[in-house]
């Protein structure tokens, strides 16, 4: 058998970050943080933004469900953020068309709750009315209301016009002090008077089924979405939960809207239509359909963080699961979990960053340091065999399928690796029911390469 030649990994051309740490645990136990995750629809997700930053930045665990890889999803339009950067507003800026999409999504969710179209339309109209733009200092104190009329960049047809309109028609008149305090509370989603969705419909509706069906929190199509009704919660409870959760789904957005104004006073002019100039302004509105970015961990990554590093706690409902319970649950969800996790644990302990290799038809992809720095070097297929390299193979390969898989891997500038996990013949199923079985399992790696006869002849001729 020919000896495998190690090829150095291909470094990416453009790297915009520095390498932080291979694992989300500090050396010596300093600044140790226990992250929280939960199981939803057989998936392990992390919602807390601080935990997401900790797990992804230190070891590149998981994937942002709304992002390509790194969880950096934002509803803001980058072009609009650049255009209005002179306004210095720390709020998402979106187009009117995108905002209408959020409105339509919110309408569809409310209609699923059994509300009639008239009630849905009234609720959405009240909820999406222009609001007084809330400005908060970094320490939480509110800025002067005069700062609401900040001008944008000096362009001819753009201006940051009146944003500090009255909140809604449902809000009772208040004194200036109360208005300032109320605006600050509205930013924390703690004042029901500034939440038209909390006052939707008539009193009869609030006392009836609407009160029970108003709050809509659902997991649809892989997205954790939330529609702004919160009629069942008290003011204090909502404000406390918002502060504690720190979920970064924006409740307030700035919508760039266009309005046409004529610069020519003569209406009968032939160039009347040409003299219409579009003016753009930013209007503060509530976001009726909020999407939460969260980190999704593979089962192997989640179990490694729990078992090997001890820095993650996984709950099902509100009950934290033990290591043995997770081993059992993950094995039921994914029949080949034990095999793939053994391979994942092995390569992680060797310093590689394994990721899911589904798009290349394999079990794992191996990265040096992490995906931002290098391309994947190996595509790995894991198989659990006995001492004689026999056993029920998960993926029996014939020459045709092996050749096609190898061609796909080579075309992506990777190498195909077969990882054989060798279990002793006397190991029982009872031993395999706990992760301690890995202590008796050996690993053998086999790199598959294509033999080129012409290249072999040339090398022999040179000798």
| Count of runs of 4 or more consecutive helical residues | 14
Q: Which percent bin holds the helix content?
A: 25-40%
Biggest sheet: strand arrangement: 3-10-2-1-11-12
Envelope shape: globular
Question: What proportion of the residues form beta strands (DSSP E)?
Answer: 15-25%
- In angstroms, what is the radius of gyration? 29 Å
Average pLDDT metric: 75
Main sheet: strands, sense, barrel? 6 strands, mixed
Structural class: alpha+beta
- The low-confidence runs, each spanning 5 or more residues with pLDDT under 50, are 135-223, 230-247
Total strands: the figure is 17
Gap between N and C termini, in Å?
20 Å
Structure description:
It is a single chain. The chain has 463 residues and is α+β, with helices and mostly antiparallel strands. The protein is built from 14 helices and 17 strands. Strands 3-10-2-1-11-12 form a 6-stranded mixed β-sheet, with helices on one face. Helix 9 packs across helix 11. The longest helix is centred in the first third of the chain and has 17 residues. It is globular. The two termini are 20 Å apart. About 23% of the residues have low confidence.
Summed up:
With 463 residues, the protein is of the alpha+beta class. It has helices at 49-57, 78-83, 96-112, 117-127, 176-187, 203-207, 209-213, 235-245, 299-309, 323-333, 337-349, 399-411, 429-432, 453-462; strands at 35-40, 43-46, 63-64, 93-95, 216-220, 223-227, 252-262, 276-286, 289-292, 295-297, 312-316, 319-320, 352-356, 364-368, 378-385, 415-422, 442-448.
